[in-house]
Amino acid sequence: MKLISDYFGCMVFDDTVMKSMLSEDVYNTLKRTVKDGRSLNLSVANAVASAMKDWAISLGATHFTHWFQPMTGITAEKHDSFISPDKDGRVIMEFSGKELIRGETDASSFPSGGLRATFEARGYTAWDATSYAFIKDKVLCIPTAFCSYSGDALDKKTPLLRSMEAINRQAMRVLKLFGNEDVTSVKTTVGPEQEYFLIDKEMFTKRKDLVYTGRTLFGAAPPKSQELEGHYYGVIKPRVQAFMNDLNEELWKLGVLAKTEHNEAAPAQHELAPIFATTNIAADHNQLTMEIMQKIAKKHDMVCLLHEKPFKGVNGSGKHNNWSLSTNTGVNLLEPGDTPAENAQFLLFLCAVLKAVDDYQDLLRVSVATAGNDHRLGAHEAPPAVVSIFLGTELTEILEAIEKDVPYDVKEKELLRVGVHTMPKFPKDTTDRNRTSPFAFTGNKFEFRMLGSSASVSDPNTILNTAVAEILKQFADELEAANDFENAIHALIKRVITQHKRIVFNGNGYDDAWLAEAKKRGLLNLKKTPDALPHFVDEKNVTLFTAHKVYTEREMRSRLEILLQSYCNLINIEAQTMVEMAKKEILPAVSQYSKQLSDTVLSKKAVSNGFDCTYETDTLTEIVQLTASAHANVKALEKALVGAKKSVGAQTLSVYYRDKILPVMEKLRADADALEGLVSAEYWPMPTYGDLLFGI
Ligand code: ADP
Ligand code: MG
Question: CATH homologous superfamily of domain 4-155?
Fold first, then answer.
């Protein structure tokens, strides 16, 4: 039997490989430059590239690629082979330091939101040496950032790395104040729990909606859905288990710490969670995970759906983003400590997150705004569109005691002084059970639960890191100037709790009463993507990102443009697909079946006028009405789509798609789904929800 420990990371050019293949000098220089975030000099780069090439070729690789994450949200790669002609007309395998650290690419077909003038369509990719190179499908992949020649970020990695620098800078200032002399850097950590659906490939290919859009645009609810709750944590079916085994093996080879797998709430829905990693690596690994899930599923004659809402009436898929901060000395800064000083430090970081989430609710909502995720948020299966924080009863009571200067423990009658007293212990387990909160403290990390399953984790983490960096900066400014650190920190924490406790909500986030309460508290409720996205460039947000050098204003505006545009494009494709399916498949099938019913009536009457034809005529009556309505809605949708061409600007267009296209799509779907309930299974032109959800 193969031991996991024998092959884990075997396709990764990791530290162990580097140590064994590089000279001590080169290895040390590489480590140092990576640590300091400087760029490699060419002779070191040449040595690393040569070792990387030898290693990759020994494992069967023939090509290399700069692997990057453009704004499409998926990864991009352009393969170059190692071959180079020698003077005898044969080939040798070559890979230079220059090719390792910097690649050039024609950027003109990637979304740039107007950042790239056509006269300089080239972009370049630069090695993110903190994320190891790896081999995938015989290709040496070098994780890279992607920028235009004028230095504008064209990808999701660049801003993420910048945000990690920003939070490192500010967290270090705060840690210095607490006398942490041994700490030299702070990194954020992320563990993304990935949900997905698996369905049979043959059925998938028979559904144009799934093929074109990744979600079903039609489909009546099956008699059985998820109401029995038998699927959650249920026994995994053999075919799915075989898929998971293959997936794990492939991920482990790539050094991805795939840890937990289980069935999710909906039929055919599953989850995979890795052990957390440094954020940029976690982002790379999540991107790889999504890609490999789809590849392995195909191998097993299945299709992996990563869409946020593949099936109406069935829970959609999300991606819980577990987030914390950790020092290079291995201290989790969101872990309550044992001494008064450790506790004060913990409370300060906790309050920084509290204030960041309250001050930048809009940005967190923006970071998860997509057409797909709009179907989930607030639909009683995922958190609402209102951002709030769950802290759990104990921690909330501790904060209240500090705010109000009352004893936390009535028996002891002692007031809780930050920096003087240790915090009362609170049980960790009780913090984790409220699944309805968008942003929950789970003992030693926060879990941001609004992300959609197909999203890159880079955007939300870029925002989270930058927002927390800003608050840490404000804290550091204030505390560095204070004469009496102990009093200053107590006063600061007290003030933050008083001013931002409105963001704390420990109750049921799915409850409508919460929405009313949230409104009273003045919290934002940005319901749909077109409501949320424009806030990205609000003045306070531009100030935030530019101050911390995470985005320039130009980059922000171009990103907004891309996000709005893709919202519109997506709905446009969905609407076009609906029109095509209705006209070419559903309505013709219904018409055929109507003929069958009328023929039956005629032939029955031919035998005897007294024969009962109630079934046929009743059904036919309903079908005729619904067909007329469906036909009218197809026409209305076609007209609305033509009307979209008149909207000027991505923002106006996004509102148009939300208000004028989506509602008509809903109406057409309602007609078609009702027809599905009337038409003989033999005539229905595509696999049903029952087939799709219970087909494996
Ligand atoms: P759950 O009860 O939700 O299963 P777990 O403790 O198992 O909670 O963690 C879920 C995810 O959170 C895992 O991916 C895990 O690696 C991640 N996680 C745990 N600690 C941290 C941390 N300090 N920073 C980031 N993610 C973390
Ligand atoms: Mg979780």
Answer: Glutamine synthetase, N-terminal domain (3.10.20.70)
